[in-house]
Known about the structure:
The complex is a heterodimer of chains A (150) and B (359). Chain A is of the alpha+beta class and 150 residues long. Chain A has 2 domains: 7-42; 51-148, Rieske [2Fe-2S] iron-sulphur domain (Rieske Iron-sulfur Protein, 3-layer Sandwich). Chain A has one helix at 7-39, and strands at residues 51-56, 64-70, 73-79, 85-89, 100-102, 107-110, 115-117, 123-125, 134-140, 143-148. In chain A, the strands form 2 sheets. A 6-stranded antiparallel sheet of chain A has the order 1-10-9-4-3-2, with no helix packed on it. A 4-stranded antiparallel sheet of chain A has the order 5-6-7-8, with no helix packed on it. In chain A, strand 9 and strand 10 form a beta hairpin. The longest helix of chain A is centred in the first third of the chain and has 33 residues, at 7-39. In chain A, 29% of the residues are buried. Chain B has 359 residues and is mainly alpha-helical. Chain B folds into 2 domains: 2-274, Up-down Bundle (Cytochrome Bc1 Complex, Chain C); 283-359, no CATH class. Chain B contains 15 helices and 4 strands. In chain B, the strands form 2 sheets. In chain B, strands 1-2 form a two-stranded antiparallel sheet. In chain B, strand 3 (298-299) and strand 4 form a beta hairpin. In chain B, helix 3 crosses helix 10 (235-260) and helix 7 packs antiparallel against helix 8 (167-175). The A-B interface holds A 39-41, 44, 67-69, 72, 74, 76, 90, 92, 94-100, 110-114, 123, 126-129 and B 151, 154-155, 157-159, 162, 172-173, 175-177, 179, 183, 271-279, 289, 292-293, 295-298, 303-305, 359.
Amino acid sequence: MNTQLTQPQESKRDFLKIVLGGGLVAWAGTVLYPIFAYLKPPIQPEVEVSSVKAGKLADIQKDSGTIIKFGSKPVILVRSAKDELRAFDATCTHLDCTVQYSKEKGMIWCACHNGTYDLTGRNVGGPPPRPLEEYRVITQGEEVLISKKS
Amino acid sequence: MKQLFKKLYALIDERVQLEDLVQFLGKKYVPIHRHSIWYYFGGVSLFLFIIQVITGILLLLYYKGSEEIAFESIQFITSKVEFGWLIRSMHSWAANLFVLAAMIHMFSVYFEKSYRKPREITWLTGMLMFFLALGFGFSGYLLPWNELAFFATKVGTDIAGVVPVIGEPILMFLRAGENVTGATLSRFFGFHVAVFPGIFTVLLGIHLILVQRQGMSEPPGLEHHPEKERKTMPFFPNFLLRDLLLWLIVLNILAILAVFFPWELGKKADAFASAPAGIKPEWYFLFTFQTLKYLPSQLWIVDGEVLGIMAFGFAGMLWTLVPFWDRKSSRGEQNRFINYLGIFAVLYIIVLTILGWLS
């Protein structure tokens, strides 16, 4: 077989290579794109929550912490031994666990990797890299309300 | 009866030439030396994988993979279905023993440098199967939808999310959203019973074919011995029978563990509860977990956990690619560095696992 190709033959071959190669890439793209798009979870619209009722003041003990449902997020409401009410995002800034109030430590504590935050939400011990986001606590008569700080 | 078998054999042999296979198996020999015992752990891993497939399929007949009823369906299996408690307990215990056996197999192959040329692909498929085994463990752990599993999944997927650039899309892909929800459970269920077993089976096929075709690797020191001094044992039936005997022993150990230490179910997951005190991952993730605890929040300008996770990722990659950078062993030269590195890895894992266990 003659392996020597003339100039026009060679350019014809190159052209075909590009067309077929390009076609192959386009074909792969049309097959793969829907699959990857399918794997990406659709964003579900969430009801924007600006404040929630956390309960009656009398029901919240001193020196304790409770997890409150704030939309789809957990928020921790702490009533300190000094009778101060504060609320923070309950999601640990380290690796996403949910924190709790530790009576012995008098601090907010994460059981997963032993991270601690003081009662202003500041990360003071263990691996957490950032402080907890603070929420506003309002007492209206007996009712305790938690809202986002804007 | 014997006549019937002979006839049946002849019938099949005529069509697919079984004789060739029997000839091949008959010619396969297993080297005997003082490290021969380690050859058995690959077989043990295989056996435990088979157990996982069988018990897994049985569980699948009653398990319901949804946020509302997953926990209850496991309760149903363990309390109402006859021997359901046994099947579930065996599946959980065999999962742990499988990781352990695979780990021993991996380290023995590493220390004997059996990964060196021409067995690089065998090592690679083995390593990929090991990572898949961890994936099986991680995804299966969530399926009962209990408190521990919920937080383990939060932490585990968040770790993936920490990786720069690609982390965020991976996290979204794994969780099927920003948070760990019922959508995550569905996804993990799919990985656990369809995606991973499919990939694993292909890798296992390649791995086993290569082991049969290339034969067992001999430790480097032994290769210099003269042919006459080397002892071997026929694979079929001698080695295979020993294999089977060991499988029987493993099955007994598994039964004892499953019966006397039934796997707990714990409390149902609640997205609005704090992580319980004393929460820990499975033992094979303990050393990474403990390391993450020790890392300070900031190292230089990077978050401690980012650095830790990247370091583990890098170490895992180096380990997986060892046949390609350990050129010395492939040339038949001694490479002490490999031994020191292996010993360091083993000691690190053991010490941090114990510390994690005690903490």
